[in-house]
Amino acid sequence: MKQPANGILDSYCLNNSHYDEVFKESKEPKEHYNSIVERFNQLSLSDFERINNEVKTAFFNQGITFAVYAEDKKPDERIFPFDLFPRIIPSQEWMHLEQGVIQRNKAINLFLDDIYHKKLILKDKVVPADLIFSSKNYLKEMVDFTPEGGIYTHISGTDLIKHADGQYYILEDNLRCPSGVSYVLSNRLALKKSLFDLFDKLKTKTVYQYPEQLLEILKTVKPKNVDAPTIVVVTPGMYNSAYFEHSFLAQKMGVPLVEGRDLFVEKDFVYMKTIHGPKRVDVIYRRVDDEFIDPLCFRKDSMLGVPGLMSAYRAGNVTLANAPGTGVADDKAVYHYVPDIIKYYLNEEPILNNVQTYHCEKESDMKYVLENIGKLVVKPVDESGGYGITIGTTLTKDQIEEVKVRIKSNPRKYIAQPIMSLSVHATFIEETKEFEPRHIDLRTFCLMGKDTEYILKGGLTRVALKRGNLIVNSSQGGGSKDTWVLG
Amino acid sequence: MLSRVANNLYWMGRYIERADHLARYSNANYFSTLDAPILKAYDRSFVLESMLFMAGIFDMEKVVERDVLFRIGLDQKNTNSILSNVTFARENARGARNVISTELWEAINKYYHLTTNYPQKTYLTTGLYTFNQMVLDQTSIVSSKIYGTLLHDGEWAMILIGMHIERAIQIIRIINSKLNDIYKIEQSGHPITEMSFEWTNLLRCLDSFDMNRKFYRTIPARETVLEFLMLNQNCPRSISYSLKGIRRYEEKISQNENSESNSISFKIRKLSEQYRYLSFDEYKDDIYGLLNRTQAKIIEIASELEKKYLSF
Amino acid sequence: MEEFYLEYYIANKYESPVRKANFQLVIIPDSNPLQRVLDLKFSCSENKEIHLSKNVFGFETINYYISNPFSEFWFKLSAKIQKKKINPFYVSPLMPNDEFELLHSLDFQIDNHLFLWDTQLTQMPPVVNYTFPVYSGELQLFEYLLQLNTFIFQLLEYSPESTDVNTPIEEVLQIRKGVCQDYAHLFISVCRKNKIPARYVSGYLSQGDGFIGTGQLHAWVEVLIPELGWIGFDATNNLVADHHYIKIAHGTDYRDCSPIIGVLETTGSQKSIHSVTVTNQ
Known about the structure:
The complex is a heterotrimer of chains A (487), B (312) and C (281).
Chain A: H1 34-42, H2 45-62, E1 65-68, E2 76-79, E3 82-89, H3 91-115, H4 120-123, H5 129-133, E4 155-162, E5 168-174, H6 181-194, H7 198-201, H8 210-220, E6 231-235, H9 243-253, E7 257-259, E8 263-266, E9 269-274, E10 277-280, E11 283-286, H10 309-314, E12 319-321, H11 327-330, H12 332-335, H13 338-346, E13 353-354, E14 358-359, H14 363-371, E15 376-380, E16 390-391, H15 397-409, E17 414-418, E18 424-429, E19 434-449, E20 452-455, E21 460-464, E22 478-485
Parallel strand pairs in A: 3-22, 5-13, 6-7, 6-11, 11-12
Antiparallel strand pairs in A: 1-2, 4-5, 4-19, 8-9, 9-10, 14-17, 15-16, 15-17, 18-19, 19-20, 19-21, 21-22
Chain B: H1 3-32, H2 44-55, H3 65-73, H4 82-95, H5 102-116, H6 120-125, H7 128-148, H8 154-187, H9 196-205, H10 209-216, H11 222-231, H12 239-254, H13 264-276, H14 280-283, H15 287-310
Chain C: E1 2-18, E2 20-25, E3 35-37, E4 41-44, E5 51-54, E6 60-66, E7 70-83, H1 96-103, H2 106-111, H3 141-155, E8 157-158, H4 169-175, E9 177-178, H5 180-193, E10 198-205, E11 218-225, E12 229-234, E13 239-240, E14 245-251, E15 260-265, E16 270-280
Parallel strand pairs in C: 8-9
Antiparallel strand pairs in C: 1-7, 1-16, 2-6, 2-15, 3-7, 4-7, 5-6, 10-11, 10-14, 11-12, 12-13
């Protein structure tokens, strides 16, 4: 296809060492990107910048921001950068992803049920018992307790990347309080408002059912003997970095957004304090981590929790989503076993690939890791948000030695993976005023209720805005894109 | 409605109203007195002191114009500055983010960003009027979103009861503050007949000058101004009107549960009815006394309201 | 059968009023084949209906949510207990080696994992100056545990207030002093190191005879001996638990059995007194 002269994408520089989502090696756009590239090329740079600025202002005024707090200073409010060029996933490719994500999360749910009950997978030595029982996320409070409907991971966020071979790989599972879905919905809305004619070019699947679906899922796991459940979202409060998302979801579901201090437990029932007295709460979508939800049970110093909540939960009078104790399954050390977990429970081959993972607690793996640090990404198993990760190719000799010492001092704490080449996507860079290739990943959102499941068509495409940066988390300077799944 | 959210809505209303009155008072006083007829009694520090009195700032050793303006407008450390009030209003709105409309939230958020990003230097040199006007305009926008984009239910009534309680208190403060000014001028030997300028000014501090002229068709004077701002049932910035509002919104919140003689509903109704049937002659010699008693009553009602509905 | 009458009393006084509070008490004697609770009575500074919940291990807890301000909280429990008299000497029908084999089978370990994997309070420091008896399958498990009981009894000196409920084993081994929790945690830790399931027990110890542990709640350890079940060992007194030991609850360590946990909204400090009396009737 011939492109008009001086399109804003003309100056795009292909980097053939990575998989480019948008362009072929010939620099022509791939089939499914054709019409979008054409549309962007019709825009002048000044038009584009104007639209870009309008979108930024809109995000700011809507308060879709996260605050960086510093002492004695006004909190610095920032928007999570949004790139106008959407990421497009063809329908066949998506079907494959969707099946793979659902398969994985089903297996993980069965795994959780097993390790908290019969523990057959441990007795059959598919997963080492010590790995589970020594994990701080394995909760004795959940042993022999069955959550309503047998569902542990009502909401899960599965992170994927596309490698240089064009294949998707699972990067990690997020089974506690995965966040980011509010950005998916806000990004779509922002793009619709600013470049509405893009939506005439291609037909994308909608993302707007997510809050209703979440509400439906939560209703399926209401406690027994409750007809019309009172559902609430529990937030740590408005100084939490994901507060926008918490209030967004509560508002879109039409349910109260509550804090721990709004709730109390009496006689094993949970109540919220309203202006006309206590009102019983039946289902809690909680965005507070396990260790903070009940100071009588877990951390005594937690100001965010509800004393007695676990007792009410174990009495079957309230449902918590996600169930406590799911963190044991998204531990990076368990990640390695997920393909075996899928085979064990479902008797199926895993649809999506895992990244090869080396466990430093295994002697042979540790030996390999120590000898090949320069080619590996080393991650602590119990950190999230991209913290503590070292990437071999960026390390100096001294740093390599430091990492080695760290691994040797606590092998259980570290895993290593080959450096995956994340695919790149054309992204507008404000400093150069040009589109440049930047690394991206994809977080999918999967909901599971009693006899029902839902997967958000698309997900959050996160983009590393710093050139060459492989870490896409917002806390590390990442942005996001609208993600289109073609119908 | 969660008690904590009710608390957020109530205080959001109070802070919005408080910032509004501070801005109006500053503007009305500062600018209308630049060419005041009674110049002698009216040096700049006199106006600044009046503004400090209204803003509740009593700890300034030396009255320096820039400092006064800064502390009233943009001082983050002064919890009663316009900036602080707007910040608190927005924080409270954020705490109730999921029960207010997107339109209202965006209006308050925008108001906050305009205030917090207002260049300090501009404000202190040439921007005093524009800044205060911005505050007044934004308040209007926010108010229209409160009336036009929220379901008129208990949550809505919570915001409005906060606004009306604060308004009643601010009206009393403003009348007190101006009576204080007028007393000082009278003490300096000016004939009472020349005071219409000051009475006009008091009306302006409450956006009531035009209303007052329309109602009485005379030059503002002590009796007509005080009667108007305290007793008029139709002036939206009178004490009586504010009490009517408190009563109306409280009924919406309490859902008309039967009210015993020591209930909040009863107390509000009693106070509001007292004002309705009061005549100026009955209290003209005891203005200060009445204002103080009314203020004490309103504060008592507010704290009982907070205890009954807002504690969590 | 032997009958005991016991009383538990706790009173907390607060410097400034408490706005809100949650209390959880784990002090009710357990009902099990060895003991019957006959006459259980409560009284409390809060005139509220008592609600009993069950904790993770199925033991009854008393829970209070108090939302009106108070500056004093007291609670009193009394009960009559019937204890079955037992001879605290056990012989396993299994050969020492079979016991050992069973304890080392993966399925057995998985089934008893809660009492085999360490908690924070039962963690043995990496370097220890003492050689604890090692369980190797030469002795019967019961015999080994008697040895361990004596070893720990001799190793530590009982010294009230030398430690608190959060003192790690590392520190206890440094000062070689402790109270019943420390004896119990150390005992559990050595057992778990040797792959022997061991759990923390809280309870009342009958008065008289000059045992350590009267006047307050006591702590000991239960160990799972194949074919015999959970047997109690009290390293503080170098004894095997008999009918003088009235059990309240067990758990992985002290934290599962804390007699009282309070989550309070208050600013000042608090003063706490408690007393325990157990009389043989």
